[in-house]
Design goal:
This protein is mainly alpha-helical. It contains 16 helices and no strands. The termini are far apart.
Amino acid sequence: MRHPRTRIGAFAALSVIVLLLASVFFLPPTPPPCCIPPVPPKPCDRWQDRVRRMAGEWNPAAHPANPDCGEPAPGAPKADIFLLRQPGHLEDLRKHPDFADWQAAFAAAELRRDPKARIAAFTALAERMTEPLLVWRGWIGAARTALRSKATDEAARYAGLALAAAETLPPGAAADAHYVLGVAARDPETRLRALLAAVRADPGYFDAHMALLRQISQMIARPEFADRAELMADWALDSLEYLARIEDRSLLAEARSAWTPNEARPGARMLLVAAYLEWLTGNLPEARRKLDRARASCEGGRQGDPFCARVDDMARALGKIGER
């Protein structure tokens, strides 16, 4: 009679032999390196995609990036997404013999994983550069990194320096600085003013519109701001009119989530805000119902009122959608 250990060892050896035979006869062979299918590319970064679609001053044909998603074409140097928002100044800088070194330095700073090291790299670049666009790029890079790290005081300080450097640049540069100042601010009034400045400097700044909607939604519900509720609703409608022109449904759903429903403030303007929000998420029957309720306030000689003009514009837009 065999010892139990001998039987266990024989069974283990037999199992190994069966697995080896299975790998030979049933598993597909490993392809040689030349035939291994390539790894599919990562989806486009949403921030780059937003810049491509929203920033009106960015002409995708003016640089070697792939216009489908803002990623560099094969063999092209990686373009800095913030610099691409300033094409006029960027074209002048491209002629400088040190441009490739500058681009590489900013790319290296952006790739640093440690936030403190990234901020240090950006501030060093801002202090070393003399071109206003590159000085601004250094400070806004430090400001955004600090903001992502929840270091709001530091973010506001760097954003202030970026705003000063943006004086001679197109409005989009100041918009980035105002946005960081707004998100970093603790006082609601300061936050509101900075975000309004951001969307006015760059009407296509999606993230600033989103932050502004969130801020107005929070303030309009508070009794201390009741006297300005209609004015803030008008600012919200400005942003919603812009967002209504976007075709990307995922971004529109994001915009819808930025607004907190507020039943405590009825009124025609809030009804129109609610109608826009329903429109953004594709609920057209509810959008029309709320629009009709808002329209009732325009009956009786208010045809010249700017608010009633908004109502009529939205009614025409919804009517065209219904005809399709």
